[in-house]
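Protocol step 4 of 5: obtain the predicted structure for the target chain.
Materials: sequence only (see below). No template structures provided, no constraints applied. The aim of this step is simply to have a reference model before the mutagenesis design in step 5. Sequence pasted as it appears in the construct record:
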Amino acid sequence: MKQINVEYNRRQPIPEQMAEVLREFRTGKYGSVLIHVFSGLPEEEALVRLCGELRDCCGTDLIAGSMSAGEIMDGHVIRQGILISAILFEQSEIGILRFDDVKGREVQTGIRVREALDAIPDLKGAEMLFPGTEMDTEHMFAEISRCRKDIQIFGGYPGGHKLNMPEHFIFNADGALYNSMIVVTYAGKDLHFDMDKSIGWVSLGMAFKITRAEGKHLIELDGRPAAEVYERFLQIDRKEHHNAEEAFEFPLMARQNGEERLRSVVHIEEDGSFWLHGFVKDGMDIHLTYGDPSNIVEKVNERLEAMRRFKPQVVLLYSCVVRKSFWEDFVDMEMEPFARLCSTSGFHTWGEILRNSQTGELGENNITMLSIGMREGDAPEAELPETRVDDTGLQGQASVLRRLTRLVYTTMEELQRAHNQLKYIAERDALTGLYNRGKIEQLINDALERGEVISLSMLDLDFFKRINDTHGHDVGDSTLREVAEIMRDSIRGYDGAQAGRWGGEEFFILLPGIDGDKAMAFAERLRRAVDCRIFPHIGHLTVSQGVVTTTGNEAWKQVYKAVDDALYRAKEAGRNRVERAIL
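Step 4 output (structure tokens):
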């Protein structure tokens, strides 16, 4: 495998510009050639004509073109505006699939893509190019994610150099495509991929809860218009910054299935809602973020070392336009080291696509740099040279920013620790360390409002007043703490189970998803655990419990009365027992 990059020159004939590619291909060593064309110039006719000339010159229909926000050639952003990258393969089978009329038919398209990928023998990788910022990628990706988990999938969204450029198209010799997807397929028994993303943006401040979102339309955070976050913390007025340029470099970070996903703001509506590059969902926690140069460099260096160990023959870089905007004159700094490993090409995108190799989920990303390494055959024995980002050249504003972001990060860490401590104090009972009444009641209420089936145990220490009267409140307090520890031990292994102090010597235990028989068995084990314990100073102690199991349709007052009545019956029946509530 070999990659040859050409910075397109309008004044020079294509055969002359592609002379090295033709010379290599005629050696007979290679079986196929794939050509990428990345262009920051929205000239449809000229680009389609160029693809036709490349097809005629190189004798290949394997041509994939994309609008780009910056063309990456051997680790540098080129200045002329069009990059031609030719990858020559020795044995691998390369194909190009085209799917038309995508918008409005995203689910059907996702099914067609999945079926097509699963049908290709020895398929190792698939590259997707399409104007995804304008499509329902969430449901399309859900279908594609169901293809074979060993298929590596990556790609990028087209877009111009400027935020207000309306052109978002891909192209080939057949024309400019605004509502289509090109999928390049890479198959071969001896073809190997290594790919991952680098981020480096850091969470800023506390989390906000998405309370209303529709795909890529973020409407409310914490029940208020989403734009208030930028207005309050960054003084970005929605009335003055509809095109979101001021918010572009402070993206939002959400977590989806344990994976960080950054979302940049495309447009701010007057009603305070956002349009994003990438979909979000109700219930997600989301943070404002900022670019920390030191952290970005660290993440890229980690990726460089992994790529060096892989020993690629070709590297593709798909990097978000926000990263380009962030680095400004230093944009080449994080890309150049990859070119020291092997030939490198790529483009700055309006969104990045990467499949999680562990879960198989196809994810939509922003503000990332994807690095895709490819190699035919086994890795050579010779080691590639160590290479790292050299950030010593950061000067002026970039250098100040690096120090300021470190200051902000350190300050935010301290504020976060203080916030966590205050939150702990606000939610915890000071004596036992269990949840306090307000928090355990909130957890129970939330579960009931979601319609979940839950079981509750309401527990009371028998004759506890005698302990305080006979031995003093210090002994009473230590006894409560020890019973709380028994309760903590008892709920281990029950997913989502929580314990809280209701008041005095009364406690609640929440058991999500546990049916009535299992809840009664749990309560009986807890009763025996207390009954068998020898407590300092007082010796023997017993507890009484009421247990209730909901159907998912009850209100909190109804559930509380039922379990309280059951506890009363346990007391009346002689204590040291468990009674089941009747709803």
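Step 4 remarks: The chain has a mean pLDDT of 91. The radius of gyration is 30 Å.
Proceed to step 5.
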